[in-house]
Write a structure and sequence with these properties.
Layout: E1 2-5, E2 11-18, E3 24-28, E4 35-38, H1 41-65
Antiparallel strand pairs: 1-2, 2-3, 3-4
Length: 78
């Protein structure tokens, strides 16, 4: 498993699989729609960052179109 940090400082967990034909594939645990692949693990991480950004943008666009709010909550109470 890999952890990817995006530009906003949020971390995402990626399940990384080595493909039998070569290269790697990955899926984000927090955003199951964020899936990608790469020839190397480093390329996979770059591609996964882009996949995560695209899924988050899509979620935000859908929320705006439906007049919904997106809120952020911490996992631990203060």
């Amino acid at each position: 498993m890999s952890i990817i940090t995006n530009s906003e400082g949020r971390n995402f967990h990626i399940i990384v699989n080595k493909a039998s034909e070569g290269g790697y594939s990955g899926q984000c645990l927090e955003l199951p729609g964020a899936i990608s692949e790469g020839e190397t693990e480093e390329e996979l991480k770059i591609n996964m960052r882009e996949a995560i950004k695209l899924v988050l943008e899509s979620i935000e666009e859908r929320a705006r179109a439906n007049n919904e709010r997106i809120i952020e909550i911490p996992l631990q109470q203060k």
